[in-house]
Each structure stands twice: as structure tokens, then as C-alpha cells.
Amino acid sequence: MTQTPNNLAADSWAIADLLRGDFKQSQYGRIILPFCLLRRLECVLEATKEAVLAKQQEIQTMNLPEEAQEKLILRATGGLSFFNTSKMNLSKLGEAGIKANLESYIQSFSKDARQIFEYFNFVEFIGQLNDANLLYKVVQKVRTIDLSIKAVSNHDMGLVFEELIRRFAEGSNETAGEHFTPRDIVRLTTSLVFMEDDDALTKPGIIRTIYDPTAGTGGFLSSGMEYVHELNPKAVMRAYGQELNPESDLAPEKRTS
Fold first, then answer.
1. Which of 48, 133, 170, 241 has the fewest Cβ atoms within 10 Å of its own Cβ atom?
2. Contact (CB, 8 A) for 154 and 160
3. Are 217 and 244 in contact (CB under 8 A)?
């Protein structure tokens, strides 16, 4: 049975039960959001993991700068913009030495993906979880959540992330509306933006670029791409955006589209 985004968000937020007593409520989101994102990235990369490891081993002796290595390894990802060269995943970290193993796993992501966890000071929280003897328990909880693209579309993953941000904002006494816009409003706005071009968008060879200067969790970007693909499945779409709030800018739907 397919879970709804709210149910998936509730499963992810259930990690808070483990944190209660050792961490403040305002800190829950700083732990749950990056763990949820880590699991999503891991699930997305699973299909091309072996190809990436093979490519990484192939270029290891070439003594190339990191940027050049990343460009070569990205060719093995099947079109993704990130990768991970570790043989580990959340299920293989073990219990003994889990802190060092998890930190190594995160450092094995490509540069842009690593920056996601730097925004959250994730390594610092990993240390705090380890000191509280909670790191292994949290990892075991997170690794059981199925966040593969087959189980959760990019659209639904965006809804999951937005629900987590809403709960995070409420716990921090912030305004959740600063981070995302309700999807019914997003869909209406997208329709209004594109309605004058509906006929043109159905023609062969259409290429469109979408840019959102205040992207939030990427809802307008993903909705725009979905709108055009509904009119023309063969249309080529490229999405770009920027965001002031780091927590919003890390939305999985933007990283895996």
C-alpha cells in the first residue's frame, strides 16, 4: 500500500521520539531533515551505485583535480547531478565506529551534495547523537524508510519535505509560510503563467528553461515541469532556482529532478 506524503512525513518525524530528552524540540528539524534527505539521496543513487564505483576506481590513478574527477564520475550516474563513491550505505555503517563511518559516507558525496549537510552542521549533530548513544538508533530508524523514486515521486517527496519543514517551523516558533507555498496555489499560479503558451508547448522540439529566484522547496519549479510534460511528454525542461533559507533550498525534489 502506497503511503501518502503526510504518512511518510510522520514516519520521518517519528525520529523525534528518540531525540526527546536529549535534544531541544527546536533542534529536531536540524537532525531529521538532513537524515531524511540523506536517505532520499541514497535511494536515488542505488540504481547506478555499482557503475559509479567502477568509474571512480577507473580514474583513481589519473591524479586529476576534484572537479575533473566529478565530471567523469557524473557520466556514470545516468543523468543525475550528484553521486557517492562510498561502498557504504545506511544499512552497512555498523554499530561500532558508526560515527566515523557515517562521516566518511557523507564525505564521499560529490561537492554540491556535501554542501547540503554542511548547511545543517550535520557533522556536529552526528557527534552529539553519538555522545548521547542515539546515533545507531536513529540510523536504524531512517534506513527502513523507503524513499526511492519508485515509491515516492519527486512531487510527493517535495510534499514530504514541506510537511517536515512545517513541523520544524512550528517547533521553532517560525512561520512555515516563509519556506513553502501550498500546492493548490502553486498549481493555479503555474497554470496562469503557462496558459498563453499551451498551443506552442505541444509542438515537437520544445525546449524550456524555468527559473525561480525565490525557490523555497522548489514547488513552483517541479509544478512547472510537470505542467509542460503533461502537455508534451517529449519537451526538454531545465529548472534553476535560488533560495535564501538553507533548509528550504535543500528540498529533495530539487536535487533529484
1. 133
2. no
3. no
In b/e form, how buried is each residue of 22-61, taking b as 16+ CB within 10 angstroms?
A: ebeeebbbbbbbbbbbbbbbbbbbeebbeebbebbeeeee
The predicted-structure confidence for 209-238, as pLDDT tens digits, reads as follows: 888 887 766 778 878 888 888 888 888 888
Q: pLDDT grade, residue 257 (50/70/90)?
A: very low
Q: Which domains, from first to last, does the chain contain?
A: 5-148 (no CATH), 176-256 (3.40.50.150)
What is the reported pTM?
A: 0.74
Task: Give the integer Cα–Cα distance in Å for 11 and 142.
Answer: 9
For residues 123 and 106, the answer to whether their CB atoms sit within 8 Å is yes
pLDDT-derived band of residue 16, with 50, 70 and 90 as boundaries? Answer: confident
Identify which has the larger pLDDT, 245 or 168: 168
Inter-helix orientation angle 28-45/5-13, to 10°: 120
Grid cell 534553476 — which residue?
Answer: 240
Where does residue 183 rank: exposed (0-12), middle (13-18), buried (19+ CB within 10 A)? middle
* CA dist., res. 98 & res. 104, Å (int): 10
Q: Which residues contact 160 (CB under 8 A, 6 or more apart)?
A: 5, 8, 9, 12, 36, 152, 252
Which SS3 state, helix, strand or coil, does residue 139 take?
Answer: helix
- Distance linking the first and last C-alpha atoms of the chain: 24
CB 20 within 8 A of CB 236: no
Q: What cell was used for 171?
A: 517547533
Grid cell for residue 76: 556514470
